Amino acid sequence: MKLLTGNELRSGAVTWWTGSGWSLHVEDAVDVGEHGEAVLHAEEGARRVNAPYIIDAVATPQGPRPAHIKDRVRALGPTVRPDLTLKPADPAAGDWII
Amino acid sequence: MYKYDHFDQSIVDARVAEFRDQVNRRIAGEITEDQFKPLRLMNGLYLQLHAYMLRVAIPYGTLDSRQMRMLAHIARKYDRDYGHFTTRQNIQYNWIKLEECADLLEELATVEMHAIQTSGNCIRNISSDQYAGAAADEVADPRPWAELLRQWSTFHPEFSYLPRKFKIAVIASPEDRAAMRLHDIGLELVRQNGELGARVFVGGGMGRTPMIAPEINPFVKADDLLSYIEACLRVYNRYGRRDNIYKARIKILVHEIGADEYRRQVAEEFAHVKTLGIDPPLAELERISAFFAPPAFDAADVEPDRSDPDFAVWLDQNVKPHKQAGYAIVNISLKPIGGIPGDATSAQIDVMADLAEQYGFDELRVTHAQNIVLPHVAKRDLHAVWQALREADLAHANLDLISDIIACPGLDYCSLANARSIPVAQKIATRFADMDRQRDLGELKLKISGCINACGHHHAGHIGILGVDRKGVENYQLTFGGSGAEDVSIGKIIGPGFDEDGVVDAVEKATEVYKTLREGDERFIDTYRRVGLEPFKEAIYG
Which domain of life is it from (chain A) (predicted)? Predict the structure, then answer.
């Protein structure tokens, strides 16, 4: 599957295309398939997201898992500061990165 | 400390106003990201993995308590309650919002600070010796020269679009505490027959092509120094490789045409530049130097009570001799066992500011090893300072030991990184947590970079670790034999890489080999240089 991701223009936060808008949670991301480029260009014009790009991901029962470690770190947050990730209450969340 | 004059303040204030307008136009959609990106980078604002990152310049690593408190305030108000001190003697904030950045910079400008020229192909923050003005072995105070270079390089119209970024270091001691020869230009102030001048080294650097800067001139008189450096930059600006980013640094130019030819061209250009009269008049140098006059040292030379063993260890490890009797240099390690190298909470930053104000003539320094220095502390106050540091979890007695690790932010934060650096640093520090074990190993400089750009100075580590991406999996290469000090050298890769736990094991095996083979007072690097790689390789790879 392919996901569209970027950073919110105003805050810089990592964000994922949900099919109708943007979410901070990769679990909400949808497969953009062949339409990724078109959505990317439209969203760039809308000025909500900075530097959007398309990545490969794998569908899992827990939701999409980005194929590259860099995007998995982006999806969660810094592994060395679990308190600053999107799952601060889950001490094992960092295992998802590896 | 240098204080801004009207010109300094007005250009910084004007830049904040200009950037505010640029941000507003970007948010309003009047300019694209392609148009905005070079503008935000000129103001130190990057887009990293999780958010915008702001790099704030700390000129030659020098701060007063008012500025330090502002750094804490910014961490608290605009970031997530911490900052990251870097190998460029700067501070980075990892979670800055674009829409708040101009407000942040406006507050920063009230304490004579900014983020200008902390990115882009320009002359970056001038770095220097963190012990400047306090070291017994310095021939002069390097800070006035670093400040002069800061003023000269700020918005220098000819050098705002160099082929690539440009880093200058100034030291004034035979002991190099600033990795001087691993800079684009390294200056070592020296005296020749009583006259002050500088040895000039050009073309050093780390990154993907590490090089030690050759000496281009053994003595440039102080009166000629600015013109000479201008000539060095002009030759680079004219012939530097703008066609290939990987060959654009001055080290490649000097290497390709050779030091002799580069020297000849600089001499030719210098003869012309000297006619332009850019060297400052004596009065201006004296004006700048006056800001760096020694403080009013008046403490009696009393040795501290060493009866507390923890305090005694901290004294031995983190406190260095001062040129003034009765005083000492205090190093504050930002390397807690298992912590993040270079990170400090806003509360810790405030504590360090308070200590500087109360005990240290209001001065602090940031080191390229990501620690903080109080350069002038009376020996009678050392115990009180240590107690306050201990309460703030800042009294780690590991300066220059194996757990005093330089590490870049790596893949946990950086969009360029290929592998995480910080977890490796945490595991190594934890493995060697026992202080007796660390102290038995002695000086061992371990440096970790998460990619080939080498922000973690791995080339200059006695033990260096480079994180690479091997088919999507983090892998770590080991290098031995690097040094950023006066015995400067570039580390060599010892063999195939390791996974995260494997590299920690390999480092431990290397220390065991060292302990077995060391002679007398040899440090790890001395033993490595004497016996070579083979015994280490045999132990690590079997």
Answer: Bacteria
CA-based nearest residue to B510, from B471, B474, B475, B479: B479
> Which pair of structure tokens corresponds to residue B533?
């790689």
DSSP 8-state class, residue B483? B
Q: Residue A89 is part of which domain span?
A: 2-96
CATH class of B134-290: alpha beta
Domain limits of chain B? 6-109, 134-290, 312-357+372-391, 406-541
Q: ipTM of this predicted complex?
A: 0.96
- B80/A contact by beta carbon, under 8 A: yes
Question: CB of A73 within 8 Å of any CB in chain B?
Answer: yes
What's the CATH number of domain B406-541, 3.30.413.10, 1.10.10.10, 1.10.760.10, 3.90.1150.10?
3.30.413.10
- Count of CB contacts below 8 A, A vs B? 69
Show Cβ contacts of residue B307 under 8 Å, excluding neighbours closer than 6 positions.
none
pTM of this structure = 0.97
- The string of pLDDT tens digits covering residues B411-421 is 999 999 999 99
Residue given tokens 């810790």 in the structure block: B348
Q: Do residues B356 and B65 lie in contact, with contact meaning Cβ atoms separated by under 8 Å?
A: yes
Across residues B93-119, what is the average pLDDT?
98
Number of domains in chain A: 1
Tokens read off for B509 = 């095996």
Which one of A10, A69, A74 has the shortest CB-CB distance to B97? A10
